[in-house]
Amino acid sequence: MCARQSAAVVLCVLAVAAPAVVMGAAPTTYTNPVGDTLAAADPFVLRAGDRYYLYSTSASDGFKCAVSSDLVHWLPIGYVYRRTASSWARSTFWAPEVVAYQGAFYLVFSAAGSPR
């Protein structure tokens, strides 16, 4: 085999092997953080700037939020709405969504109320 053919064979082997080496560096599995590391039913994610905010059915007396910059690693930041003595919503808090409108954010949700 001449030097030119040997070089072509080596390049072909490298072209086939190189992607396998690069692909081997990537993680082989992914774990969804919702349900495993976050107690979050009915999740709703809002992107605002370079952050993602996850709102969910997550508490018996309101809604909690978590923030992420990559949709994988989430930091719980606490309540965004919590029932008070004067709240119309009393129980069964579920399915929150947040809408950005004219520079403000509005939380919309379902809940059971009680007559006053």
Span between N and C termini?
Answer: 93 Å
**Total beta strand runs:** 6
C-alpha geometry:
globular
Mean pLDDT: 79
**Poorly predicted runs of 5 or more residues:** 3-22
Q: Tell me the Rg in angstroms.
A: 25 Å
Plain-language structure description:
The chain has 116 residues and is an alpha+beta fold. It has a domain at 41-113. Helices cover 20% and strands 47% of the residues. It is built from 1 helix and 6 strands; from the N terminus they run αββββββ. The longest helix is centred in the first third of the chain and has 23 residues, at 3-25. It is globular. Residues 3-22 have low confidence and may be disordered.
Pick out its properties.
116 residues; alpha+beta; 4-stranded antiparallel sheet; two-stranded antiparallel sheet; 1 helix; globular
Quick take:
The protein has 116 residues and is α+β, with helices and mostly antiparallel strands. Helices cover 20% and strands 47% of the residues. It has a domain at 41-113.
